[in-house]
């Protein structure tokens, strides 16, 4: 462990292990197997990188994320670690070079795509090499129920049989119990030690807003909180991705689209810009993001409802991997609820699978409509109990006001009943508000007892009420394609007056947040100027080498430089994230940049 600590300090530039990291590293260094469940940004990579360096032989990392291997390897080389990768992007000649280096014992870490690893030729190569460990990254890919299923992952149990002496570590950020047991089963990790970290991401602030004009509200959120930051905006459809990206660009943001309808080349180009430039907003369908390693994504915004809490957690988890404050912001509306319900009903899946899909959507809606702490609800869904409300979600920071909605709900429900359960929300609202339209007359709805009884609420408020009644299961949406609403069994007690209903009030004005300033003091003008200077130096160095800026230094490292203002190389070496190698390569340049910014009399 002495050696492991030295590597942590000298190579990676960190003083202490994070919770669980030390025990995981010890387990592997001593030759044991481990299963690691840790949230995104928790620090999984060090758990295998350090033992791979500390143990004799090369550590083999299996990852499905071919597009990222080059950056991962580059980041290690920047630290002075001898790393390489083998995947389909390499030329034959480069491949041979890597293989020779492996056999000569010159590699500490080798990244391999699963299909490449499983080729008999590769297995034989590995048998001739000295191996420190196998790390199976993104281990949830073995799960057939998950969204990232990779058939090759199921064949990885071969490692245990062919390399019985080489320790294995499987890692994932997917939390649910079912996936976990599938990993243990499929990868034969029954004897492995299990390390399960809390899935809380305290630096992420959750906010879910409802009501109309989501795009305009997104804009206000971006302007107020993230005028220059990089982030991701998720939309459900390709069309909406294109439109939203165009719209943001028209308003002066650097926004790029990403969806499955684009060519692989365009997608790759946009992803590279997102990784390599500062302040890009990626507007994407969920096709974007798995394994996006960018640590300084400052916000993830959803313009549509994700279809499950698992998906929401995974997508929002791409924000703030560096541990600095980040936002998970979502706007959702009635259309989302109707659309997702319909998609669940119309899918080809069998009845059992459909029930699971429905159940997951209900849970997601529950999270949206809750009036108490979002984080407690979110972690509770994964079986984790957070003692007190978090103080860092919208409901904690600005407790929603509720209103006594029983009577209005009764009106809304009986209007559904009176019109024969054949009409969608817009028509129902017209009836409640007593609109004398041609359509209303055609159906004779101006003669109904519910015609014009809803004057106490505005159209938007009725919409919000209908959405909540659907979300809470009092109404269901017919999947005939027209969105007709139907009563469910569950609405009887409410209609009979045996049950009362409290609902959250839509927020009209979004007040300025105040708590953020207390949580993370913003830089003053001079500090900001220094931070910007360090950032542009970093960008220049990154461009020269063709690597993403965070491969040089993370934002958190630059911020620490701003606060500590080191004046000597020794002081610089004490900054988190500045190891021996990086101190040598970049220490002087950054010291000079700091000195240029600070007036001489202070320095
Ligand atoms: P994950 O793979 O779990 O999403 P990473 O391995 O990318 O997370 O680590 C997330 C961030 O935390 C990285 O910036 C990494 O350098 C940093 N980190 C990891 N371990 C430590 C540590 N012990 N001390 C300080 N920073 C750490
Ligand atoms: Zn909270």
> Strand fraction band?
5-15%
Question: Tell me, what's the shape?
Answer: globular
Total domains: 4
Helical amount: 40-55%
What secondary-structure arrangement, pairings included, does this model have?
Elements: H1 2-10, H2 21-29, E1 34-37, H3 44-54, E2 58-62, H4 66-78, E3 83-86, H5 92-103, E4 109-112, H6 114-118, H7 120-128, E5 131-136, H8 151-154, H9 158-162, E6 168-172, H10 177-186, E7 193-196, E8 204-210, H11 214-225, E9 231-234, H12 238-250, E10 255-258, H13 264-276, E11 281-284, E12 299-302, H14 309-316, E13 326-332, H15 334-346, H16 351-369, H17 374-381, H18 394-397, E14 402-404, H19 406-418, H20 425-433, H21 438-442, H22 459-471, E15 475-477, E16 485-487, H23 492-495, E17 502-504, H24 515-519, H25 525-545, H26 549-552, H27 555-564, H28 569-573, H29 580-597
Parallel strand pairs: 1-6, 1-7, 2-4, 2-5, 3-4, 5-6, 8-13, 9-11, 9-12, 10-11, 12-13
Antiparallel strand pairs: 14-17, 15-16
Helix pairs in contact: 1-3, 2-3, 15-16, 19-20, 20-22, 25-27, 25-29
Bound molecules: adenosine-5'-diphosphate (ADP) and zinc ion.
How would you describe this structure in keywords?
six-stranded parallel β-sheet; 47% helix; binds adenosine-5'-diphosphate; 29 helices; alpha/beta; Rossmann fold
What can you see in these coordinates?
This protein is of the alpha/beta class and 603 residues long. The chain has four domains: 2-196, 3-Layer(aba) Sandwich (Rossmann fold), CATH 3.40.50; 204-397, Rossmann fold, CATH 3.40.50.300; 402-504, Arc Repressor Mutant, subunit A (Orthogonal Bundle), CATH 1.10.10; 525-597, DNA polymerase, domain 1. Helices cover 47% and strands 12% of the residues. The strands form four sheets. The chain has a seven-stranded parallel β-sheet with strand order 3-4-2-5-6-1-7, with helices on both faces. Helix 13 links the parallel strand 10 and strand 11. Helix 15 (334-346) packs antiparallel against helix 16, helix 20 crosses helix 22 (459-471) and helix 25 (525-545) crosses helix 29 (580-597). The longest helix has 21 residues, at 525-545. The radius of gyration is 27 Å and the shape is globular. The protein starts with a helix and ends in a 6-residue tail after the last helix. The model is unreliable at 509-520 (pLDDT under 50). Residues 373-375, 389-390, 393, 395-396 line the site of zinc ion.
């Amino acid at each position: 462990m002495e050696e492991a600590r030295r590597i942590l300090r000298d190579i990676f530039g960190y003083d202490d292990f994070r919770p669980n990291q030390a025990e995981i590293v010890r387990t592997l260094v001593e030759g044991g197997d481990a299963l690691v469940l840790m949230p995104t940004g928790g620090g999984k990579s060090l758990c295998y990188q350090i033992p791979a360096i500390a143990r004799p032989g090369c550590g083999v990392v299996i990852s499905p994320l071919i597009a990222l291997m080059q950056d991962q390897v580059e980041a290690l080389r920047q630290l002075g670690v001898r790393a390489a990768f083998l995947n389909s992007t390499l030329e034959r000649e480069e491949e041979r070079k890597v293989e020779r280096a492996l056999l000569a014992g010159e590699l500490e870490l080798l990244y391999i795509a699963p299909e490449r690893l499983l080729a008999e030729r590769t297995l034989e190569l590995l048998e001739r090499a000295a191996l420190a460990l196998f790390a199976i990254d993104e281990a949830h890919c073995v799960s057939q129920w998950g969204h990232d299923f990779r058939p090759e992952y199921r064949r990885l149990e071969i490692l245990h049989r062919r390399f019985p002496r080489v320790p294995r570590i499987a890692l994932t950020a997917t939390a649910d119990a079912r996936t976990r047991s599938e990993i243990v089963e499929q990868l034969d990790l029954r004897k492995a030690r299990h390390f399960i970290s809390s899935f809380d991401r305290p630096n992420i602030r959750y906010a879910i807003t409802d009501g109309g004009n989501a795009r305009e509200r997104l804009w206000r959120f971006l302007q107020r909180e993230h005028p220059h930051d990089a982030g991701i905006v998720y939309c459900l459809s390709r069309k909406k991705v294109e439109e939203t990206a165009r719209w943001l660009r028209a308003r002066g943001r650097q926004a790029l689209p990403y969806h499955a309808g684009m060519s692989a080349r365009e997608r790759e180009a946009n992803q590279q810009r997102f990784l390599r430039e500062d302040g890009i907003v990626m507007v994407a369908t969920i096709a974007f993001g798995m394994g996006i390693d960018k640590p300084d994504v400052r916000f993830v915004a959803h313009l549509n409802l994700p279809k499950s809490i698992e998906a929401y957690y995974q997508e929002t988890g791409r924000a703030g991997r560096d541990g600095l404050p980040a936002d998970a912001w979502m706007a959702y509306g009635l259309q989302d609820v109707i659309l997702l319900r319909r998609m669940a009903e119309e899918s080809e899946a069998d009845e059992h699978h459909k029930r699971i899909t429905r159940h997951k959507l209900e849970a997601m809606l529950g999270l949206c409509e809750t009036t108490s702490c979002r984080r407690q609800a979110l972690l509770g869904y994964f079986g984790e109990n957070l003692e007190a409300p978090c103080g860092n979600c919208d409901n904690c920071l600005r407790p929603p006001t509720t209103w006594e909605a029983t009577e209005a709900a009764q009106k809304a429900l009986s209007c559904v009943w009176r019109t024969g359960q054949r009409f969608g929300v817009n028509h129902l609202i017209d009836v409640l508000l007593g609109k004398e339209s041609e359509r209303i007359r055609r159906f004779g709805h101006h003669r109904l007892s519910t015609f014009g009884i809803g004057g106490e609420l505005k159209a938007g408020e009725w919409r919000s009420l209908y959405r909540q009644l659907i979300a809470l299961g009092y109404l269901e949406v017919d999947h005939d394609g027209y969105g007709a609403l139907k009563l469910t069994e569950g609405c009887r007690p409410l209609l009979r007056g045996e049950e009362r209903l409290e609902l959250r009030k839509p927020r009209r004005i979004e007040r300025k947040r105040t708590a953020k300033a207390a949580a993370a003091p913003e830089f003053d003008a001079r500090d900001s100027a220094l931070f910007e200077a360090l950032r542009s130096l970093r960008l220049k160095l990154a461009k020269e080498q063709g690597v993403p800026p965070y491969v040089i230094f993370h934002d958190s490292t630059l911020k620490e430089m701003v606060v500590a203002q080191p004046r000597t190389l020794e002081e610089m070496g004490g900054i988190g994230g500045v190891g021996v190698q990086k101190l040598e390569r970049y220490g002087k340049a950054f010291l000079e940049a700091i000195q240029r910014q600070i007036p001489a009399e202070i320095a």
